[in-house]
Amino acid sequence: xxxxxxxxxxxxxxxxxxxxxxxxxxxxxxxxxxxxxxxxxxxxxxxxxxxxxxxxxxxxxxxxxxxxxxxxxxxxxxxxxxxxxxxxxxxxxxxxxxxxxxxxxxxxxxxxxxxxxxxxxxxxxxxxxxxxxxxxxxxxxxxxxxxxxxxxxxxxxxxxxxxxxxxxxxxxxxxxxxxxxxxxxxxxxxxxxxxxxxxxxxxxxxxxxxxxxxxxxxxxxxxxxxxxxxxxxxxxxxxxxxxxxxxxxxxxxxxxxxxxxxxxxxxxxxxxxxxxxxxxxxxxxxxxxxxxxxxxxxxxxxxxxxxxxxxxxxxxxxxxxxxxxxxxxxxxxxxxxxxxxxxxxxxxxxxxxxxxxxxxxxxxxxxxxxxxxxxxxxxxxxxxxxxxxxxxxxxxxxxxxxxxxxxxxxxxxxx
Length: 415
Hints:
Elements: H1 2-29, E1 34-41, E2 47-50, E3 53-54, E4 62-70, H2 74-87, H3 109-114, H4 116-127, E5 131-137, H5 139-149, H6 160-173, H7 175-184, H8 192-208, H9 215-229, E6 248-250, H10 253-263, E7 268-272, H11 275-291, H12 294-301, E8 305-308, H13 314-334, H14 339-342, H15 348-351, H16 356-375, E9 380-383, H17 386-395, E10 404-407, E11 410-413
Parallel strand pairs: 1-7, 5-9, 7-8
Antiparallel strand pairs: 1-4, 2-3, 2-6, 4-5, 10-11
Pfam families: DUF3800
């Protein structure tokens, strides 16, 4: 037992050092002076439990992003896009180009990348050295993360993402049953009196959930002991949520917009008009002006963003297409079998029977994403479970953590 703890301390320290070094590299990248253009997809505006169900589909993840350019390239790209419109045979009198002008409305991801117009657009983005950027928020994962965070603080020495991912896996398999538990306990405002009963219900749910992946049985054991060991902790994030007594799970989308402007504070950010977001940001800034510290006032003084009508900005229109494709990609990725992460023989194109057009569209999209990530890792941010991140990174041929794998009936962590 003593050896285990010493090894765990060593792993935690090495993980912390590694994370620190990675952050040092990334901090340099936040100083870039680029123009960022944005649109969003799958914006539920308020993600909540309504009539015992989620008010939006669990696979429809919020994506905010688009294209990113050096300022001196803007005019060149705008001119080139007008030429691309002719190649794509987009009607001249159409004021706003959207994703459904390039692939039929309601198309899934595979139909989308099969479209010649989408393939031509992706090729054009690559040929013109245009990068993409995005923030992705997994609605379901983000909504249940506080169940784990309330049991143990998130710190560099506590990798709660592992337990959050394990919980998410079971919830995803049987979402309707789990939402009924949340509904019964008025989640996220569970309260201290109901906390023990709530967590016992969560444990029972996990143990009863069927699965077809061997390592998941170990996850059940790990979650069981983790929850039982921390059961009597104060449920930090599950009480005093009176403002969320309507079972609201997410309503802070505006913070994702604002965080991008602060994260890339040397750049300028052009958002598609979203009145609710604009209003929330204005309210937040007003409160800082009235009650904030001098440091906060100085931090929030820089207005390096603008909301524009997308009809008047073709680069925001391009961003609409980009995030639309990304939204479909994440929905597709979620449904890729978990074996994909662990089985080196699992080939996407074979599993989904790609034809030559699927293959070409797939390769173009992967190349575009990888090219953007290699340009600047900070262009991409995902608030999601580790399994989805591992799938995504493996899809684009990028470094990834395999999360937890089984070998000789034991569980190994890779940090």
